[in-house]
Design a protein that fits this description.
single chain, 287 residues, alpha/beta, 13 helices, binds ligand C2E, binds magnesium ion, EAL domain-containing protein
Length: 287
């Protein structure tokens, strides 16, 4: 409810923001203040292995707890942050906080799992990316195999530069996944060229797999392709049992979606790590 409210208020705010440069400056200042005053928080969405029902990873997703507007969704400020360049310091905050939290969970005795962090194109292409990430890993004590970076394929991306950056990330030992896979342009070209570990099938394909045979075919084909290419695969936006069964039958091993859990705060995530997710395994789901 707070989320809905925050979103609506902010959308109005955001529409105004777009109209004049003064308002844009205001939003920019608000975002700077948000960073300084620690108004951002991370939510975490479990990534679940279908067969076992186990949480095998979590994606960190930023939220803005705005002093007047409440919980603001990233869709309402990340695009502006990207445009204005503020995504770089915000993204650094996300990266550091996610690594710190993951290390803290390990120190508390939870079984180590990777944490995924969304990297915007600006961050991905920034100077000395490898050095910056390696610095954060050192500061937080997180081993690189427990960090996964999600990048979104983009039509305007400089492919050679991207390959160079990806190779540097590989050298560091972190994992890289392609987010929203299927929504970009030269996906197959990138797949062949990019040293990546995992594809995340975009929610827009998963949504209609039970009603649209084309989407079913696309999803089944992406999964089969990942097995041939030795890539990991995860389906985003799984909301019901039929979708889960379809994915399982088509050998997709991992899913992320409301069926298991929406993104939740750190305490709720810990609760799930301790007690498991209510609808645990495919066997339980099928009964
Ligand atoms: P994304 O990286 O593709 O993250 C998945 C989004 O799908 C999340 O939205 C999540 O809440 C939503 N989602 C997950 N399962 C379901 C489902 O079953 N049904 C539906 N309808 N939605 C589901 P969220 O948290 O609002 O984030 C939206 C986008 O904002 C993210 O998409 C990502 O592109 C961006 N974002 C979020 N946090 C960060 C961040 O720290 N840095 C950057 N650069 N971008 C971020
Ligand atoms: Mg993502
Ligand atoms: Mg994304
Ligand atoms: Mg996505």
């Amino acid at each position: 409810k707070a989320k809905e409210k925050g979103r609506n208020d902010f959308q109005m705010f955001n529409a105004d923001m777009k109209s004049t440069s003064i308002n844009r400056l205001k939003l920019e200042n608000e975002l700077r203040r948000a960073l300084a005053n620690e108004e951002f928080v991370l939510y975490y969405q479990p990534q679940v292995e279908i067969e076992s029902g186990r949480i095998v990873g979590v994606e960190a997703l930023i939220r803005w707890i705005h002093p007047e507007r409440g919980l603001v969704s990233p869709n309402h400020f990340i695009p502006f942050a990207e445009e204005s360049g503020l995504i770089v310091p915000i993204g650094e905050w996300v990266l550091r906080s996610a690594c710190k939290q993951n290390k803290a969970w390990q120190n508390q005795g939870y079984e180590p799992i990777p944490i995924s962090v969304n990297l915007s194109m600006r961050q991905f292409f920034q100077h000395n990316l490898k050095g910056k990430i390696s610095h954060v890993l050192e500061q937080t004590g997180l081993e690189p195999q427990y960090l996964e970076l999600e990048i979104t394929e983009s039509m305007t991306m400089d492919v050679d530069h991207a390959i160079q950056s990806l190779l540097e990330l590989k050298e560091l030992g972190v994992n890289v996944s392609i987010d929203d896979f299927g929504t970009g342009y030269s996906s197959l070209y990138y797949l062949k060229k990019f040293p990546i570990d995992k594809l995340k099938i975009d929610r827009s394909f998963v949504r209609d797999i039970m009603v649209d045979p084309n989407d079913a075919a696309i999803v089944a084909t992406i999964i089969a392709m990942t097995h041939h290419l030795n890539l990991k695969v995860i389906a985003e936006g799984v909301e019901n049992e039929d979708q889960l069964n379809f994915l399982y039958q088509n050998r997709c091993n991992e899913v992320q979606g409301y069926w298991y859990s929406p993104p939740v705060d750190g305490n709720e995530l810990e609760y799930m790590l301790n007690h498991g997710i209510p609808v645990a395994s495919i066997a339980a789901a099928g009964e």
